[in-house]
Amino acid sequence: ERVGFAIIGLGRISLEQILPAFAQCRLARPAALVSGSPEKARLTARQYGLRPDSVHGYEQFERLREDPAVQAVYIALPNAMHREFTERAAAIGKHVLTEKPMATSSEDCAAMIAACARSNVRLMVAYRCQYEQVNRAAIQAAQSDAVGRLRFLQAANLQSSGPGPQWRYSRRLAGGGALPDIGIYCLNAARYLSREEPLEVVAQAYSPPGDERFREVEESMSFTLRFPSGLLAQAQSSYGAYQEKSLRLTGERGSLFLEDAFAYRGQRLHLFYRDGEHGLQRQPQIHPRNQFALELDHMARCIREKRRPHTPGEEGLRDQVIMEAIMRAAESGRPEPVPLLPADMTVR
Ligand code: NAD
Description:
The protein is of the alpha/beta class. It is built from 9 helices and 16 strands. It has helices spanning 12-21, 38-47, 82-91, 106-118, 133-142, 171-174, 178-194, 291-304, 313-332; strands at residues 3-8, 28-34, 55-56, 72-75, 95-98, 123-125, 150-160, 200-206, 220-226, 232-238, 240-244, 247-251, 254-259, 268-275, 278-282, 336-337. Helix 4 (106-118) packs antiparallel against helix 9. The protein binds nicotinamide-adenine-dinucleotide (NAD). Nicotinamide-adenine-dinucleotide (NAD) binds next to helix 1. Residues 9-13, 36, 76-79, 99-100, 126, 128, 165, 167, 173, 181 line the site of nicotinamide-adenine-dinucleotide.
């Protein structure tokens, strides 16, 4: 029997990526829908073969308690709502897979971790790239002798965003602009590729004057993280630049280029290193699998085996603490230290 997920929020990520991905899952299946639009939810339920009585409004969320087919919830609501629905899910004994960014403040992240621990339910943040196979091959390569000691990382997550959806331009609902929405991928990659935690950040934010969308949140955030080994990771994130989602990691002996690192599909890894006199280039061939399906199956396996997910709540909290330091650095114009987490909240 597969692990049943209730999908909370039927926006773009749910309808266009997650629900279709279940078809490629081995351990997870959709079991209920929670939405503010009854008509959309009814149509979606029919499309995925769900019974009409497995559709609920946000106010009836607690009805999921009575549904044994639902073991977990997948939260795909605006960032500021992740905490409320995580706490409500934990209170009715359901495991939680929440979208990134985990929340809009480190206080909220800590409260989510505490709520799930109290109820003894698993908590995972949907860092899909950490389940994607080419990114995983890049992690292996980054740790190999061929690349050697890591020196520089450059990552970009850039796009040109349109007028909506409006919640992304609201500080209250989104927690920030390009940084928490897409810059977080660069930050998370710098951490999973190096397996280090940054000590210090410098940053600059920019918003075009007079653009209504960027009155509350930044259009662009550029930041540099300094790691204990000396690695410097530079990242650019923007809602106002031509699409780019790749990263380059350079070590003392070799480097790697990860094309479309943060895209939904189409990742490619290029390795460059020296062998004696020769410069070599290699492109590992990796059979693509749907990263959303891999992510959902990982959560399902953790629920079955009562295991801690690979990207638990502490991973989301860690990124949130660093993003708060990045925002302080952009504000102050000076390097800002990244605060340490209590020992029981460290991820690695
Ligand atoms: P979206 O705007 O398409 O969907 C959000 C949903 O929340 C909508 O169905 C909307 O009706 C509902 N909602 C409920 N209350 C709301 C309110 N007060 N204001 C606005 N909407 C409200 O957004 P999305 O792109 O699906 O993003 C949802 C979450 O998923 C966000 O946390 C986002 O960061 C994350 N996300 C992750 C990825 C990824 O690749 N992992 C990609 C996109 C979005």
